[in-house]
């Protein structure tokens, strides 16, 4: 009987301590519930009404069938001699499109164009355009106001010829492409030209690589001496193009976004050639396309960094855009 009372007392004591432990381990009121995730809220994009059509967009609309429905034309003066126009429109297939056009007045003595290299170095590697602009500014001779991606990357190197700060880093020696791969050349006196020719049978203006301070190659001709260079490629994608007018005093850098149906599907080479011709280019070519198509713009007082930075102004599939083996910088001295 005594043992039974002892066991009952022991059970009561154990139950009491068990209750205390449960109370002590009670979950806090502010403890997060991991199973209940915050809902993802997506805000639909709103394009502000804009009925004013700028000069470049008017040229495209008057001379081509590229723009079916005009949506937005926003032009910003980046510096004396440089303007960037953002165009939103619906193409002839009823697809959303977005395009950036950088217009550079080469007649301005304060404006210059230069090749950019990853980490401002002479080694072959890749880097995002925003970082490339940052590293190259120190020796640019001024401020890099904007920049675009350069040549197609092959094993971390540019595919075509490349001259950086008057140093010849690579020469295209393949017979089939040595004279037919387009490039943007900048002579040591600062003058800009588009070099090579679209076919072996075409005539070509002579040049000397030793006279060049910069050379950045491209991959596909769009225009040559005022005439279109037709392409059999029908791929629709993001593309970056450079165009120079006949007087060689205006340079156009165009980046068309692609890969996102709701924002911008992309563009073919032939349609991009029409755009380049309509805005005034005589010679034009594509540098690279797809994820690598990037345009960056200088931000003087970045709220995040507290200093100078370069913002991606187009909308590549990846926020920073694909890395490039070289680029073209637009500098104000």
Automatic annotation (TrEMBL):
Residues 1-26 form the signal peptide. Residues 143-330 form the Phosphodiester glycosidase domain. Keywords: Signal. The keyword Acetylation does not apply. Pfam families: NAGPA (PF09992). The keyword Signal applies. InterPro entries: NAGPA. This is Exopolysaccharide biosynthesis protein. It comes from Sphingobacterium zeae.
């Amino acid at each position: 009987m005594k043992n039974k009372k002892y066991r009952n007392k022991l059970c009561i004591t154990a139950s009491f301590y068990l209750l205390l432990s449960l109370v002590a381990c009670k979950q806090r009121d502010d403890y997060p519930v991991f199973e209940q995730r915050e809902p993802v809220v997506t805000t639909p994009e709103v394009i502000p009404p804009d009925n004013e059509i700028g000069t470049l967009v008017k040229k495209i609309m008057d001379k081509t069938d590229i723009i079916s429905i005009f949506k937005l034309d926003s032009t910003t003066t980046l510096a004396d001699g440089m303007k960037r126009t953002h165009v939103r429109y619906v193409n002839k297939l009823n697809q959303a499109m977005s395009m950036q056009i950088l217009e550079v007045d080469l007649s301005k003595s304060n404006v210059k164009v230069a090749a950019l290299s990853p980490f401002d170095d002479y080694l072959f590697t890749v880097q995002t355009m925003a970082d490339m602009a940052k590293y190259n500014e120190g020796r640019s001779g001024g401020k890099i106001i904007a920049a675009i991606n350069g040549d197609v990357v092959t094993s971390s190197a540019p595919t075509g010829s490349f001259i950086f700060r008057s140093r010849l880093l690579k020469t295209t020696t393949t017979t089939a492409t040595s004279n037919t791969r387009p490039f943007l050349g900048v002579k040591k006196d600062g003058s800009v030209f588009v070099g090579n020719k679209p076919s072996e049978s075409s005539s070509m203006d002579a040049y000397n690589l030793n006279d060049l301070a910069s050379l950045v190659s491209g991959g596909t001709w769009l225009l040559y001496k005022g005439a279109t260079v037709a392409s059999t490629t029908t791929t629709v994608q993001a593309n970056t193009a450079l165009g120079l007018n006949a007087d060689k005093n205006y340079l156009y850098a165009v980046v068309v976004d692609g890969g996102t149906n709701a924002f911008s599907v992309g563009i073919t080479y032939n349609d991009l050639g029409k755009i380049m011709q309509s805005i005034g280019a005589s010679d034009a070519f594509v540098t690279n396309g797809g994820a690598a198509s990037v345009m960056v713009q200088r931000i003087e007082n970045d709220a995040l960094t507290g200093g100078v930075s370069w913002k991606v102004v187009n909308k590549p599939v990846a926020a920073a855009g694909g890395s490039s083996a070289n680029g073209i910088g637009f500098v104000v001295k």
